Amino acid sequence: MNDKRDMKAVARAGFEPMVEAAGRDGRKLAGLAGLASKIGLRGRVYPLATEARALAPDDGEVAARTQQLIGQSVPRWHFNMLRDEPRNAAFDAAIRRAVTPGTHVLDIGAGSGLLSMMAARAGAGRVVACEENPAIADSARRIVAANGYADRIRVVTGNSTELELESDLEGHADVIVSEIVSNNLLAEGVLTTLADAASRLLAPGGQMIPMGGAVMVALANWGAATRTHMAEVAGFDLDGFNALAQVPRNVAVSDATLTLHSTPAALLSFDFTGKAAREPHRGAATLVSDGTPVSGIVQWIRLDLDAEASYENRPGPDAKSHWGAQFYPFDAPLDLAAGTELRVVGVHDGHQLLVWREDRCPRSELPSS
Ligand SMILES: C[S@@+](CC[C@H](N)C(=O)[O-])C[C@H]1O[C@@H](n2cnc3c(N)ncnc32)[C@H](O)[C@@H]1O
């Protein structure tokens, strides 16, 4: 393990001299793009791959290798996310409410440039679209131009925490729009990114979209969970392997076998406007059972877009969302009387979230299951 790490460090140290030695040889540069990916020099993959393609435009192998590398540098969920109509419509409506002619907008984590183009379409005077992934940023530049907004949207490649107020942004933004949230709200680093943006890049009296968000929970039953439960395999009992299953489990919000059986509650709530002195790291909620047996706790997200509207991907038969719900199974199902209260606790470190049940009554008093 350590040998592998040492070898990567050696390869990283000698990497740029190798690039220099490769000169203008497309095949060699394509190979180095592959090496960059293997040794963790992620920022070098796309520039080297595109240079290789430009230098060897008729080389089928270079085309195939670099296409694979570029594709691997873009998380697959981008495609489902861009087709997520309820998400897109909620952001479009909030952007239209916030933007007036001349508004200066910063889009953090611009991706394809979708929210930036929504802002420009709503009349924004100028938009800075900040995207840290160089392959995605380049694509956004082309998409923005193809849609006729290149005169008002400037794509800046880099992380928002490194944006220079004057040279990159030309002054504070009136509106900062962002969609850098994950299934558990936090895993894309939304808290630190938006705390920096709100305190450093937003004009006094400016607006953050979303202005806040919450980790939502409810008691639930997920019938299909048992489908992946390990039992008899080839005549052997593999039940013991279930103890190694990953928690939480990802489940589509529209899964017909996932049903909610308590009041929903905000387990952790966050203010993205920078007003909160300190984000909470731990939260608790009391869930009131509707009397139906439950097999776990389900978690989804809420985005408080502005003072008027919130977006939620709350599971249900008609729910549509590219964000999955997260299911935390109980050791055994609980058959609770209607009105029984269960206390649920959540803790996060800014990226990861952990949710568990903290029984209000001693275990022995809980209904047997
Ligand atoms: C969930 S996608 C959203 C894309 C686009 N805003 C949309 O709504 O369709 C988030 C994007 O933000 C980028 N990103 C995340 N944090 C960032 C940051 N602090 N600065 C710049 N880009 C960031 C990621 O590379 C990714 O492309």
Description:
The protein is α+β, with helices and mostly antiparallel strands. The protein folds into 3 domains: 71 residues; 102 residues, Rossmann fold (3-Layer(aba) Sandwich), CATH 3.40.50.150; 153 residues, Hnrnp arginine n-methyltransferase1, CATH 2.70.160. The protein is 30% helix and 28% strand. The chain has 10 helices and 17 strands. The strands form 4 sheets. Strands 6, 9, 10, 11, 13, 14 and 15 form a 7-stranded antiparallel sheet that branches. Strands 3-2-1-4-5 form a 5-stranded parallel sheet, sandwiched between helices. A hairpin with a 4-residue loop joins strand 16 and strand 17. The structure holds S-adenosylmethionine. S-adenosylmethionine binds next to helix 6, helix 8 and strand 2.
CATH architecture descriptor text of the largest domain? Distorted Sandwich
By CATH, the superfamily of the largest domain comes out as: Hnrnp arginine n-methyltransferase1
- Order of helices and strands, N to C? HHHHHHHEHEHEEHEEEEEEEEEEEEE
Helix content: 25-40%
CATH topology of the largest domain: Hnrnp arginine n-methyltransferase1
Shape: globular
Number of strands: 17
Alpha-beta content class:
alpha+beta
Number of helices: 10
Q: Which value, in Å, is the CA radius of gyration?
A: 24 Å
> What is the beta-strand fraction?
25-35%
Tell me, rounded to a whole number, the average pLDDT.
Answer: 93
